[in-house]
Specification:
- The structure is a homodimer.
- The first copy, chain A, is an alpha/beta fold.
- Chain A has two domains: 10-113 and 266-340, FAD/NAD(P)-binding domain (3-Layer(bba) Sandwich), CATH 3.50.50; 119-264, 3-Layer(bba) Sandwich (FAD/NAD(P)-binding domain).
- Helix content of chain A is 31%, strand content 23%.
- Chain A has helices spanning 18-26, 49-53, 66-69, 119-124, 131-148, 154-160, 170-190, 216-228, 322-340, 376-389, 393-409; strands at 10-14, 33-38, 42-44, 63-65, 76-80, 83-87, 92-95, 98-101, 104-107, 111-113, 162-166, 200-204, 232-234, 239-242, 246-249, 255-256, 259-262, 266-268, 286-288, 300-302, 307-309, 355-360, 363-368, 371-375.
- The two termini of chain A are 38 Å apart.
- Chains A and B meet through strand 4, strand 5, helix 5 and helix 11 of A and strand 4, strand 5, helix 5 and helix 12 of B.
Chain lengths: 433, 433
């Protein structure tokens, strides 16, 4: 892989998401060689992907070039590659661009969509874990309306304008809200010759409440907001299948639709080669101790979504979100610095700063440890926190300008089909470009 | 195609570029039905494509959703489709989404890259006439450096860092300049473990001067600027072939390169079905009269790049640029309004407002009818004119913010490989994602 051998110990980090980035930052300018490997050359700010998918933000504003992040860092190497396997006996990482020896290996590969083994849903439903996937959703939504315009068969037209979002977590809620705002403010203007009232947005949640893990107040208010925006919220309903045409459920309700967005679960995006005993059944994450060390290994660590660190409070591991990932990554880096400078390592304790979700214009819910609130102020807090967390000054400015523009003009202007999505569902007709 | 039949005459415009858009605007809110057809759902501001290709701007900031442009216009219809054929005897336009009758047909299909029949160049070279193509160049350039980093064979590494731009018109000059600025300011920081001095940027022009059509002063100054930025300018050199590995020329110089960007010519992107006599050999444009009427037809018009309107001053038709397209489109619309309101139609006279090109930071050349100047002030004029010409307030703001940021920070931050370019050249190795 063409990385120079030095006298410094080599720390290899796989993944430039929240956890990997935080670890790399904490390892900066030490007597250590740091190699960061990612299959993309950019960091993705996943919490705003849904705005890319719904035409509110350009993809480039929520992505940040990984090389730039480390421009001024000594002994740092970035490599664009996919990791294929860990050979832990020889301390060797195998990748698409050759293998690399490591002294310490930090796995921060994050998570991927969990279809729970359903191949048909996997084939036909859309997912939203990466920028290209969000862009695919953006293209598909717009293509649907272009097609609905031409469709004379009512049943097919309704299916093209029927959107089913499976999963009532933050992703599902935020996406449903954003689609509802498009329905309200933008689509009737863009498609005056189409009856946009026929558009349906269904949010299906298998349990009895949205935003599980947040307070009851937040959960209830989010539901109220969604209903007010015209979203059909289905609770206690489990999706059984989607065959590219119909969503079947365990209830009496079925949905004929051209678009299913699957936000019902994620699972750890683990790396091959580690003994299976160390991976936890639930959500496919690596079982780690309080120092993020993967069970059964001495110099292999996992942080972020891919790690399952069981504690008294989090018996199934921490929530697969940005905050635990950032905190685990940062401590991981600090602990390795401590290890090589002979200092004491600290065990991880999650500092839950709270969680929040936005539903639409002036509508958000925020749970802070000591204060829970919803509505306009929550919405401003949500915006401030997300703007502040974005990496890069340019990105902050561009996102801010877009938000101000969208707010004042009731608009979302990046509704461009830059690369058409090649449909797999059964409502497609000649849409090749 | 599901367009209502009304008592109003139906004007069909093919293409939402500069010419088509100007025509549609001029036809607004008249007793006419206007149908605009484009294969993209957005207008592309082509003069800034090179900045998308070199990481200076996000694609969404130079594209504008066509539907939004006509949100408040009565009797206006947009359809996303590709036109396959004109059936002029039945006044019927055939498209990928069905056929459509027209009373008046305006062809504003623009131009496409002209490879002058060389299939090998067409297969291996990059072109830059659309947003996806510009994004492909952006991905390829970055992928090349990621690969160069790994390449131990010196000859191959040099080829990966060797860029050949064919064509010394505005596109070639601006692209060469932008690449040279990347070489200077960005790549050495992003790739500290690569010797960026080995990067070469070659601009090959078949004639004896760059920016043909501009003044001698502009042409000479542009060349000076490029040389100062480290571009190798080759004049009076004609490219004969590129086989994915080596560019051969009619001179002694050959270029081993992984990247050829073909900016050596465009040709009209004509529509099938019109008798061949009406298309002009040179550049494949439709021969039109001073009222943009295609020779041999009564209700078919061509405007912009695809039209060849011969005048005393422009014996081969007007230059294939934004200005003539906008002016022809606007007059076309006005003339149709005149026709249907019984007013007199005007014959086209091109008002040449001048031309300009930017080479890099503080470096541009401007030819106004009565004033020709180069340097810092020209650069500000260039920026002001382009910002002002961009469609959409949001786009203007975003582009402006990006330019300010890039200027102050000597940076271009959108260097993201969002969708990897699948290489066709012979230097590719496993880069599939």
């Amino acid at each position: 892989m063409n990385i120079p051998q030095t006298s410094f110990p080599r720390i290899v980090i796989v993944g430039g998401g929240f956890a990997g980035l935080a670890a790399a930052r904490a390892l900066e300018n030490q007597e250590l060689q740091v190699v960061l490997i990612d299959k993309h050359n950019y960091h993705t700010f996943q919490p705003l992907l849904y705005q890319v998918a719904t035409g509110g933000l350009e993809p480039d504003s929520i992505a940040f070039p990984l090389r730039k992040r480390f421009n001024d860092v000594e002994n740092f190497y970035f490599r664009l590659a996919e990791v294929t396997k860990v050979n832990s006996e020889e301390n060797l990482l195998e990748t698409t661009i050759g293998s690399l020896e490591y002294d310490e290996l930090i796995i921060a590969t994050g998570s991927t969509t969990n279809f729970f083994g359903n191949k048909s849903i996997e084939k036909y439903a859309m997912e939203m874990k990466s920028v290209p996937q969000a862009l695919n959703i953006r293209s598909l939504v717009l293509e649907n309306f272009e097609e609905a315009l031409l469709e004379t068969n009512l049943e097919k037209r309704l299916a093209l304008m029927n959107f089913v979002i499976v999963g009532g977590g933050p992703t599902g809620v935020e996406l449903a809200g954003a689609l509802a705002e498009m329905k309200k403010g933008i689509l009737p203007k863009d498609y005056p010759d189409l009856d946009i009232r026929q558009m349906k947005i269904n949010l299906i949640q298998s349990s009895g409440e949205l935003l599980k893990g947040m307070s009851n107040g937040a959960s209830q208010k989010a539901e109220d907001f969604l209903i007010k925006l015209g979203v059909d919220v289905w609770k206690n309903l489990r999706v059984l299948n989607y065959d590219g045409e119909t969503v079947t459920t365990n209830g009496e309700d079925h949905f004929k639709t051209a678009t299913v967005i699957w936000a019902a679960g994620v699972k750890g995006d683990t790396i091959d080669g580690l003994t299976t005993e160390c991976t936890v059944e639930r959500a496919n994450r690596f079982k780690v101790d309080r120092f993020s060390k993967v069970e059964g290994y001495e110099n292999i660590y996992a942080v972020g979504d891919v790690a399952c660190m069981k504690t008294e409070k989090y018996e199934y591991g921490h929530p697969m979100m940005a905050q635990p990932a950032i905190q685990q990554g940062r401590l991981m880096g600090k602990n390795l610095v401590a290890k090589y400078t002979g200092k004491k390592q600290k065990s991880f304790e999650y500092n839950d700063k709270g969680s929040m979700a936005t539903i639409g214009r002036n509508k958000a819910v925020v749970d802070l440890p000591k204060w829970k609130f919803q509505g306009v102020f929550a919405w401003f807090v949500w915006m401030f926190v997300h703007l502040f967390s974005l990496i890069g000054f340019r990105n902050k400015v561009i996102v801010f300008m877009n938000w101000v523009y969208n707010y004042i003009r009731f608009d979302r202007e990046t509704r461009l089909i830059i690369r058409p999505y090649k449909k797999k569902n059964k409502f497609s007709f000649a849409s090749d470009e």
